[in-house]
TrEMBL record, chain A:
Catalytic reactions of this protein: (sulfur carrier)-H + L-cysteine = (sulfur carrier)-SH + L-alanine
EC number: 2.8.1.7
Alphabetically ordered keywords of this record: Iron, Iron-sulfur, Metal-binding, Pyridoxal phosphate, Transferase
UniProt key word DNA-binding: no
Cofactor(s), names only, from the UniProt record: pyridoxal 5'-phosphate
Molecular function per GO: cysteine desulfurase activity; iron-sulfur cluster binding; metal ion binding
Record has Metal-binding as a keyword: yes
Organism name: Halobacillus locisalis
Annotated protein name in UniProt: cysteine desulfurase
Cross-referenced Gene3D superfamilies: 1.10.260.50, Aspartate Aminotransferase, domain 1, Type I PLP-dependent aspartate aminotransferase-like (Major domain)
Enzyme class (EC, first level): transferase
Pfam families attached to this UniProt entry: Aminotran_5 (PF00266)
TrEMBL record, chain B:
Reactions performed catalytically: S-sulfanyl-L-cysteinyl-[protein] + uridine(34) in tRNA + AH2 + ATP = 2-thiouridine(34) in tRNA + L-cysteinyl-[protein] + A + AMP + diphosphate + H(+)
Keyword Acetylation part of the UniProt annotation: no
Organism: Halobacillus locisalis
Name the UniProt record assigns to this protein: tRNA-specific 2-thiouridylase MnmA
Lineage of the organism: Bacteria, Bacillati, Bacillota, Bacilli, Bacillales
Gene: mnmA
Annotated site, Interaction with tRNA, chain positions: H128, Q340
Length: 380, 370
């Protein structure tokens, strides 16, 4: 039985060229970039080069890139780091109810420390409204954190509009761009945004690496204490081989952005078309015209997430939904709850399928056929 | 007949040693084994951590050792509606419910069985100590070989339809053999302590737990003659035959709970383990299930258990026209408790069971037992 991976929003397979790029670093360039000898310098050289590449991928200055262990750490550093460093200006933070847990749990930890957090709603389209941000802004707002593309629905948020609106306000604007980076063209020269969090393993790079873009002049407290790496913003010996692999992944996705997006759109359409041809009862969550081509979140009326996902996996189709509690059972999606209300059936009958390098026209169609068979069998 | 490798068996895995070994044995026998953890109770805190976490972690570790897929399924709503509500109602009525019997009937061998079947399973297996024997398309449930661990008492509500689809891979084993198999195979749960008590209460204090859901109404402790001996904290905290926690001192034999008067909120107490009021010679039970699928029409001799892990007692069973049945005891029985199950056996075969409703003495209902 062929296994078909439709969970690229969770993580992606590494591009073979990325692995090839990393192996010699593990073998030869093992030095500590902070060391004052040639071994250290060789590693530092790789790090500098990677910093230039990643910076230029978003039009940033290399000094504005802080390598982290991934998206979660980048979000935490952005949110908690700016909140701590700017609390004398105010203690109000604005975010949305559809953020990734890296953001939600970070702001919740600040809430417990006395910060005041506004969680903006979304409507059925799955997008936050710029007017809502405007209304929520207060004199004591110090940070607004809104993701660029939602990881469950793929719905693109109006980040440019919000950034323009924020331009005249003291608050920093942070965006988790983990699901957008690579596929969407993002340039901080044109986008007035202060902080951006990126993950390596979502763009066919290695796990354990990501970066935070920090616009020059942004007041940021450090969360991890130790050595003076990353301009004192992130202590700890740099993960040089992963950074090197990440750089390669950035180069590849930047170059192939257009063809990737075309392919993913085709997969997504093929997948949906097949469900339609197989007469499956389904509906798509979120506004389709605002959705990234790499993600589709589908509601199967009358079904149950756990039964669907288990059946899919047992027949070789890997997908996901919402988030699991620590005991493995699937919790109703907080994103879909925010869109449709906590009592809506869509929060417990929806599956996210996400497309990427592990797919081709054929396996996407096969997967859709298997999904259709299962849904039909469970409907009987 | 399907080959074993094409026969899918869903194993209900709790994270304990018994279900771990059940999965191991099925895997060794060549079945297509799928491990599933049931989450029936929500005590998730604000960090998303619940007491089931460690158990699920153990399920993951064992399934990875066995190289079988594992999943979780949530039956919190069904459990609340079918088991916990019943549990509270029974306590409110002054009875002593058996949530394990209800959990097996409504959750493990109904909702969970349906779930397993929806995954294309041919069988559902659990780590219960019981056996199923097939004779020409009909099924009998037998006690586990390890009589000390035998769990047919809790399984008395299983029907033919269910027995046709279940496997109890541990039924022919002694508990110590199960431990040994777990240790020999270095299973992650080999040394794990057996869980005790009611699953949703766990290690917590029973009284504290119950008081969160039912208002406690303190009242008098009295002898059956109406002599006030002290105060009780709420009838639901006491069960028939109980000695602990009464706090009645003084001369003579220790004091025991001998009955409850729900209407007047009185706890009856009597002196001596063998107090006459604790003894009865018969009962009437409802919600009868006959594992054979055929309800008996005529009276018959059998053995019975009135609580888990009790020795069998000789009884005569008299089926009643309304589906209930009456049981008379060969010898008087102590502390027969309404709400608990009476389970009937013919030798090793578990014939079925029912819920004790009325306790009889000389053909007359004892009114003071609740």
């Amino acid at each position: 039985m062929e296994s078909i991976y439709l969970d690229h929003a969770a993580t992606t397979p590494m591009h073979p060229d990325v692995i090839e790029e990393m192996v010699p670093v593990y073998k030869e360039t093992f030095g500590n970039p902070s060391s004052v000898h040639q071994f250290g310098r060789s590693a530092r050289r790789l790090l500098d080069q990677a910093r230039r590449t990643t910076a230029s991928s978003i039009g940033a200055n290399e000094k504005e890139i802080v390598f982290t262990s991934g998206g979660t750490e980048a979000d935490n550093l952005a949110i908690i780091g700016t909140a701590i460093a700017n609390q004398q200006k105010g203690k109000h933070i604005i975010t949305t109810s559809i953020e990734h847990h890296a953001t939600l749990h970070a702001v919740e930890s600040l809430e417990a420390q006395g910060f005041d957090v506004t969680y903006l709603p979304v409507d059925e389209s799955g997008a936050v409204k710029t007017e809502d941000v405007q209304q929520a802004l207060r004199d004591d707002t110090i940070l607004v954190s809104i993701m660029m593309v939602n990881n469950e629905t793929g719905v693109i948020q109006p980040i440019e509009e919000i950034a323009d609106l924020m331009n005249s306000h003291q608050a920093y604007f942070h965006s988790d761009i983990v699901q957008a980076y690579g596929l969407l063209n993002i340039n901080v020269k044109e986008l007035p945004i202060d902080l951006l969090a990126v993950s390596g393993h979502k763009i066919n790079g290695p796990k354990g690496v990501g970066f935070l873009y920090v616009r020059e002049g942004t007041q940021l407290a450090t969360l991890q204490h130790g050595g003076e790496q990353e301009r004192k913003r992130r202590a700890g010996t740099e993960n040089v081989p992963a950074v090197k692999g990440f750089e390669k992944a950035v180069e590849i996705i930047t170059e192939k952005r257009t063809s990737y997006r075309e392919a993913y759109r085709r997969y997504r359409n093929r997948f949906i078309e097949t469900l339609k041809e197989e007469s499956v009862n389904y509906s798509i969550n979120g506004a389709e015209d605002k959705t990234m081509e790499s993600i589709v979140n589908i509601s199967f009326p009358g079904m149950n997430v756990e039964t669907l996902l288990t059946n899919f996996d047992l027949s070789g189709v890997a997908a996901s939904s919402g988030s699991a509690c620590t005991a493995g059972s699937v919790e109703p999606s907080h994103v879909l709850s925010a869109m449709y209300g906590a009592e809506d059936d869509r929060t417990t009958n929806s599956i996210r399928f996400s497309f990427g390098l592990a797919n081709n026209d054929d396996n996407v169609e096969q997967a859709a056929k298997k999904v259709s068979q299962i849904v039909h069998r469970l409907s009987d | 007949m399907k080959e074993r490798k094409d026969t899918r068996v869903v194993v209900g895995m709790s994270g304990g040693v018994d279900s771990s070994v059940a999965a191991l044995l099925l895997k060794q026998q060549g079945y297509d084994v799928v491990g599933i953890f049931m989450k029936n109770w929500d005590d998730t805190d604000e960090n998303g951590v619940c007491t089931a976490t460690e158990d699920y972690e153990d399920v993951i570790r064992v399934c990875n050792q066995l190289d079988i897929p594992y999943y979780a399924v949530n039956f919190e709503k069904q459990y609340w509606d079918k088991v916990f509500s019943y549990f509270l109602e029974e306590y409110k009525a002054g009875r002593t419910p058996n949530p394990d019997v209800m959990c097996n009937k409504e959750i493990k061998f109904k909702a969970f069985l349906d779930h397993a079947m929806s995954l294309g399973a041919d069988y559902l297996a659990t780590g219960h100590y019981a056996q199923v024997r097939e004779n020409n398309g009909s099924y009998e449930m037998l006690r586990g070989v390890d009589h000390n661990k035998d769990q047919t008492y809790f399984l008395n509500q299983l029907s033919q339809d269910v027995l046709a689809k279940v496997m109890f891979p541990l039924g022919h084993l002694e508990k110590k053999e199960v431990r040994k198999i777990a240790e020999e195979n270095d299973l992650a749960t080999a040394k794990k302590k057996d869980s005790t008590g009611i699953c949703f209460i766990g290690e917590r204090n029973f009284k504290d737990f119950l008081s969160e859901y039912l208002p406690a109404q303190p009242g008098n402790m009295e002898t059956l003659d109406g002599e006030v001996k002290g105060k009780h904290d709420g009838l639901m905290y006491y069960t028939l035959g109980q000695r602990q926690g009464l706090g009645i001192g003084g001369a003579g034999d220790p004091w025991f709970v001998v009955g409850k008067n729900v209407e007047d909120n009185i706890l009856y107490v009597g002196q001596g383990f063998h107090h006459d009021a604790l003894y009865s010679d018969g009962l009437i039970a409802s919600e009868a299930n006959w594992t054979s699928g055929n309800a008996p029409i005529e009276a018959f001799k059998a053995t019975a258990k009135f609580r888990y892990r009790q020795e069998d007692s000789g009884v005569t069973v008299f089926p009643m026209e309304d589906g209930r049945f009456k049981v008379t005891f060969d010898e008087p029985e102590r502390a027969i408790t309404p709400g608990q199950a009476v389970v009937l056996y013919d030798g090793e075969v578990c014939l079925g069971g029912a819920t004790i409703d009325t306790v009889l003495k000389e053909e007359t209902a004892i009114t003071y037992v609740g």
